[in-house]
Amino acid sequence: EALDGRPLGSGRINLTTDDLTLHIKPSHQETIRFFVIASPHSPVILGYPWLNQHGPTIAWTDRTITCWSPHCHAHCLHTQVKPAQALNKPGLTSSIPSEYQDLLEEFSRTKATHLPPHRPGDCAIDLIPGATPPKGWIFPLSQAESEAMHKYIQEELAKGFIAPSTSPASAGFFFVKKKDGGLRPCIDYRGLNEVTIKYRYPLPLVPSALEQLRSAKLFTKLDLRSAYNLIRIRAGDEWKTAFSTTSGHYEYRVMPFGLANSPSCFQAFINEVFRDMLNRWVIVYIDDILIYSSSYSEHVQHVRAVLQRLISHQLYAKEEKCEFHRDKISFLGYIISSEGVAIDDKKVEAVLNWPRPSTLRELQRFLGFANFYRRFIRNFSTVAAPLTAMVKKGTSRLSWSQAALQAFDDLRQRFSSAPILHHPDPEKPFVVEVDASSTGVGAVLSQRQGEPPKLFPCAYFSHKLTPAECNYDVGNCELLAIKLALEEWTLNHRSLLKPAGDPEGVGNLEEAASQGPPPVIVDGEEVYRVNTILDSRRRRGQLQYLRRDLGSPPETFWTPLSPRNSTQIGQHPEEGVDPGDGHLLAPGVARRGGGS
C-alpha cells in the first residue's frame, strides 16, 4: 500500500520519472528518479533508502535540515569551498555543518599551535611593591610522569610557547590525572600569586546571563582550543612565570593555567572580541561560547559572524567539543532549551552518588556544589540549615545528627527531581508564592504557559533567617520573603507587580490606593512603594497572585491583607513610625488577622 494507506492495486510500480534535479535549500542538489504512485496527499516522498544515504538532521521547530551525511558533502552540497578541497588541507576536517564549510579554518589544529601575536590584552603580572616571586620545589615524578614531562617540554618548545630561562623565579612542575586517565601538566604558582596584584575583572554571572535566552530556539556551542595559550604574556613579564623540572628551567611566553589573573585576563580579552555581540546572541564564559537565535536563518548568520570574528583574532575552536544547531544543549552545568533551564544530568548523577561527607572540608565541597544549583531547589536554605549549622561549628570531624542526615538525603533527592525553570514571558502574569518557617523563608516565581495554560516555576528564592529575623512573627517573615525575593528577581524582571484579578472584598482598598501610592513599611523602613492593592487570597500561607506590568515602575512590595482586617490599615501605626502625609502603614495587626 502507499504511504497514505490506499492499496496500490496489483502491488506493482511500473512507472518512473526521467532524471530530475532535486533542490533542498539552501545548498543541497542532486539528480534523482522517482517512482510514480497515486498519492494526492504527498506529491514527493523521500523514502528510507534516501534517508539512510543522506542522513539529514532536521530542526523540527523551523522545519529545516541542519546537517548532512558525508555522502552529501561529497556529491550533493554546493558551497563556496567544496568539502573535498577542505579535506586536503592539513589539520582540517569536514564534520562541520555545510553552512560553515568555507570557515573550516576556525577548527584548524595546526593554526592553534602557532605562537599568538602580542595584543593590548596581553597578560600582565604586576607584583606587590618590594615583593619577588619565591623559589618553589622541584617535585619528584614517576617514570610515566617523567616521560610525559619530557614530551610536553619538547612540544611546547617547538611551538614557541615556552623558552629556556635564566630567571631567579622558580615554580614547581607536576601532573594531575584527567578523568580519562591522562596526565595534565600543572605549575605550582601559589607563591607567585601571593605577591601578584590581582586583576578584578568580573566573570559573567551565569544564571543572570541565561535570563536572556527567553526567545531562543536554536543553540550552538563552541569551545576554544588551548584558550589561555592564545594570550601572550606581556613583554618583560615572562621571567616571572619560570618553572623548574628535573631536566631544566623554563619560562612561558603564553599565558599558562594557574596564574591568579588568568581567568580575568582572558575574560576581558574575549569580551572585547565580542563586544558588539554580547547579550544579543552570544554568551561567553572564558573559553565557552554559546550562540542562540530564534530562527534557523538568523542562527546561521549569527554562527558565521562568530566564526569569522574568531578567525580574525586568531582564536581557534575544538571541533570535537563543538555542537551546532541544537534545540537542547549542555552549557556550563545546565541543560538549555527553548522551554527553559534545567540541571545537567551529569551533575544530577554526581550529587546522587555523592558519599556522605566525613570531614568539614568535604561537607563544604558538597554545600558549595549544592549552592551553585540552589535556584532549582525550593526552600533550599531551610532544607540545608542543619548542614550549614555543622559548618559553623568549625570542627574538622563531623558528628551527624538525625536532622543533618535527613537534610543530606533530602537535598540529594530534591536534585534528582528538580524541575525545569521555564523562561518567563514578560507579556504574561506572574504568580508568586511564599513560605516561612522557623529557620528560613522562601519564594517561588511561576507563570502559566502553554495550551491549556499550566503553572510552571521560573525561579526559586530562599534565605536562612538571621538570629534577629528569627524573632519575627509569621506575617513579618512572609513580608521578608517577598522583600528579599523581589530584590533578587527584579534584577532580571524589572516591572511592577499588580493583582491578577479583582478579588471580592478589597474594593475599598483599591479605592484607598487610588488616592495615592502608599508605601509598605517594615521595621520603620519604607522598602517598596505599592501602586495597587495586591490580591490577598492565599492557600496554606502562600501568596497567590502577582502580575507584571511592563512600563511601570521597577519595584513593588506586597503586604498581606484580608477583607476582614483591611479597614484597619492606617488605624494602628506602629510606635515611632510616621509614614508622612498621604501614606499608609501596614501594621502587624493587619498582617496577623485571620487569613492574612
From TrEMBL:
What UniProt keywords are attached to this protein's entry?
Endonuclease, Hydrolase, Multifunctional enzyme, Nuclease, Nucleotidyltransferase, Transferase
Q: What class of enzyme is it?
A: hydrolase
Gene3D superfamilies, sorted: 3.30.70.270, Acid Proteases, HIV Type 1 Reverse Transcriptase, subunit A, domain 1
The domain of life for this entry's organism is Eukaryota
Q: For the region Disordered, give the residue spans.
A: 554-596
Assigned EC number: 3.1.26.4
**PROSITE patterns reported in the protein's UniProt record:** RT_POL
Domain Reverse transcriptase, residue spans: 157-336
Q: Which InterPro entries match?
A: DNA/RNA_pol_sf (IPR043502), Peptidase_aspartic_dom_sf (IPR021109), Retrovirus_Pol_polyprotein (IPR050951), Rev_trsase/Diguanyl_cyclase (IPR043128), RT_dom (IPR000477), RT_RNaseH_2 (IPR041577)
- Molecular functions (GO terms): nucleotidyltransferase activity; RNA-DNA hybrid ribonuclease activity
State the family it belongs to: Belongs to the beta type-B retroviral polymerase family. HERV class-II K(HML-2) pol subfamily.
In terms of PANTHER family, this protein maps to: PROTEIN CBG26694, PROTEIN NYNRIN-LIKE
Name used for this protein in its record: ribonuclease H
